[in-house]
Write a structure and sequence with these properties.
The protein has about 675 residues and is an alpha+beta fold. About 25% of the residues lie in helices and about 30% in strands.
Length: about 675
């Protein structure tokens, strides 16, 4: 009803000035030139299919000949108007309506309207009917005789369809969940959502002005706050900005990390073209002061739009068609200054930008990824979302984010929490499921399984070691165990952050070794699992005279903190070992001393040496020959228990690490 009321008001203002041609066609042409494509299609419809019944005078008679709606139609062809209507519906993203009109034009005159066949195929692709689109594209290529569309355009469209078909059969699509978020308005679209904090967003939606001026479109884009709860945008409220110009539209905004500055786009139509600029406003209580133009990034005669504030508060990313770019809209950035203004803008370069359009930048600081929309690269049709990672001071080549992030329609305005993985809880804007308008969608990708692999080597000859035991423990003390095969390799399903895990490596006749995770390479080729390659572990063989015997013959002696004095109960253990040595004249012992993790490496090495020596001296004083005793100190190496659990000290773990191991050989 609001759209009909608007058309009535516009009609009242324009009918008197139109007399030489049919007023409905003239109005359609006027709004088509102004980019009001849906309105243009409505006027063309009134000419093509006028209402047969009279409309009471109480209603404005846009469609009644009785009220002198028609002028001199001259030699206007209804097919020409139908083709204009098809163009209007297509440009307004009403694909079903456009397809029907294009098909009718082509079937009536395949020579004059040969381009209609191409556009009919494009409409079918946008509607997800890929085989039908391919069929008509091939018909267009084979029968092309005239028109504005050339064979290269059709071939490019065929490539899009081929790309789409490859995308939708990718096995990893099962890892994605995409859901439409309930809009804050009905039928008018909600898009360009940007997180403020938690589940609170600033976004763009269409609002109806309370006062309708003659000749002015009553619908404008405005900024709103809203809360995202259970897939619904709720508690919507307009963003209060002092001195806003109601004849402009506002949208695509961000708020600085310190919450003191609002950056947003304002635009209006000039000569049938949207002209946009980026403004900023300072906080004023719960609202914002009168906005100011960002002079450094807005150039006279050009447009800048879609600002995004980096999480660190240092950079404003945006899109602009100002000079110095690759053509049309490019991705730019500019340093943010303390007063909210911006410094000299920098173009993102030809790695990111093409001769077509790049728009709506988003920078994910945690991963160093730039996400943006482009219609100048191989994609699924319309705007697709691409991602490029910063490598040192240069962007890597952008990658299409693929299906189902992208669709055969326009996909733009990406947003994701900075503290999570890029696709763990993302939001995009897309017209994939609507008749015409951008809507908001949530996208969640299940994390890939992560496996960490490694190899255990002999330090002396660098050969793989079979039957080595590898234990991986996380910060909570939870551990996994593996035994290496003949190739010396082991693998674990990763537990949490790999950097918070510790490896313990041991093998009979070799010294134990402990070490943190050191990732040398990550293989992401498999869609189900990322394989992290750890740096090789090498362990040293123990000298022949110090060979460690079987585990069941190992006795552990414990010490007090920072002490190497034998306690009474520990002496009782040593006496039991002495009894075995007396009964077995050929038996030998090897003593290994250890400390906990407190203190320096140098001090702990000396402390563990004193502990091993204290045990050796006890046996020597009892008369055991020194050639039957060997000892070695390892410092804080090879703890048997975690000394920190979830960042807190674990005294019991430290007690168990202050020890000496006595290995008895009966041979």
């Amino acid at each position: 009803m609001q759209r009909l009321l608007f058309l009535m008001i516009i009609g009242v203002n324009c009918l008197e000035s139109l007399s030489q041609v049919d007023q409905r066609i003239a109005l359609g042409d006027k709004y088509f030139a102004a980019g009001e494509y849906y309105t243009a299609a409505t006027f063309y419809e009134q000419f093509l299919n006028p209402l047969k019944k009279e409309i009471p005078k109480a209603n404005f008679p846009l469609n009644s000949r009785r009220y002198n709606q028609g002028g001199n139609t001259g030699s206007v062809s209804k097919l020409d108007i139908l083709y204009k209507q098809a163009e209007s519906y297509r440009l307004a993203n009403y694909w079903s309506e456009a397809a029907e009109k294009y098909k009718h034009c082509f079937e009536k005159d395949s020579i004059k309207y040969s381009d209609a066949l191409y556009w009919y195929a494009v409409c079918q692709r946008s509607l997800g009917k890929y085989d039908l689109a391919k069929e008509y594209l091939n018909r267009f290529i084979q029968g092309k005789v005239s028109g504005n569309i050339n064979g290269q355009d059709a071939e490019k469209e065929l490539q899009i369809i081929q790309f789409i078909k490859k995308q939708i059969i990718r096995p990893d699509t099962v890892m994605y969940s995409i859901k439409k978020i309930t809009s804050i308005s009905s039928g008018r679209g909600t898009f360009a959502s940007s997180a403020i904090s938690g589940n609170r967003f600033i976004l763009t939606s269409t609002a109806t002005d309370s006062i309708i001026a003659n000749g002015m479109n009553p619908y404008h884009n405005r900024l709103f706050y809203a809360t995202l709860e259970n897939g619904n945008l709720q508690d919507a409220e307009p963003v209060s900005i002092d001195g806003i110009n109601v004849s402009f539209s506002q949208g695509a905004a961000c708020i600085s990390g310190d919450k003191n500055f609002l950056y947003f786009t304002q635009w209006k139509k000039e000569n049938g073209k949207n002209v946009s600029s980026i403004y900023f406003a300072t906080r004023n209580g719960n609202g914002w002061n009168r906005p100011m133009l960002l002079s450094s990034i807005n150039k006279e005669g050009y447009s800048s739009k879609q600002p995004y504030c980096s999480a660190d508060g240092k950079t404003l990313f945006f899109a602009s068609d100002m000079p110095g770019g690759s053509g049309n809209f490019d991705i730019w950035s500019a340093p943010l200054l303390a007063d909210g203004a911006t410094g000299t803008p920098l173009n993102a370069g030809t790695i990111i930008n093409t001769a077509a359009e790049e728009q709506a930048p988003f920078y994910h600081s945690a991963s160093g990824n730039l996400v943006f929309a482009s219609n100048g690269r191989q994609g699924m049709g319309g705007f697709d979302l691409f991602v490029a990672k910063m490598n040192a001071s240069q962007w890597n080549a952008p990658e299409n984010m693929g299906y189902p992030v992208n669709s055969s329609r326009d996909d733009i305005y990406f947003s994701a929490p900075q503290e999570k993985d890029l696709l763990e809880n993302a939001i995009i804007s897309s017209d994939r499921g609507s008749e015409c308008c951008m809507e908001t969608y949530s996208i969640v990708k299940s994390p890939k399984k992560k496996t960490i692999t490694g190899i255990v080597l002999d330090c002396k000859n660098n050969k793989p070691l079979d039957s080595a035991e590898v234990i991986m423990k996380d910060i909570s003390g939870k551990g996994l165990q593996a035994i290496t095969g003949p190739d010396g390799k082991f693998s674990f399903d990763l537990m949490g952050d790999p950097k918070r895990n510790i490896f313990y490596v041991s093998k009979e006749k070799y010294k134990e070794k402990a070490g943190g995770v050191v990732i040398e390479n990550v293989n992401e080729a498999d869609w189900k699992v990322d394989i992290l390659q750890n740096a090789p572990f090498c362990i040293e063989m123990i000298e022949e005279k110090k060979l460690v015997i079987k585990v069941e013959n190992v006795v552990t002696v414990y010490f007090d903190f920072d002490k190497s004095i034998l306690r009474q109960k520990e002496k009782a253990l040593l006496d039991s070992i002495y009894t075995i040595l007396v009964k077995n004249s050929t038996a030998t012992i090897q003593i290994s001393g250890y400390s906990d993790g407190l203190g320096s490496d140098t001090y702990n090495k000396k402390l563990s040496d004193r502990r091993a020596k204290a045990c050796a001296d006890y046996f020597i004083k009892k008369g055991v020959a020194t050639n039957r005793i060997s000892f070695e100190s390892f410092g804080k190496c090879c703890p048997v228990e975690m000394e920190l659990i979830n960042g807190r000290d674990n005294p019991d773990g430290r007690n168990k690490n202050r020890r000496a191991l006595i290995n008895i050989s009966k041979e």
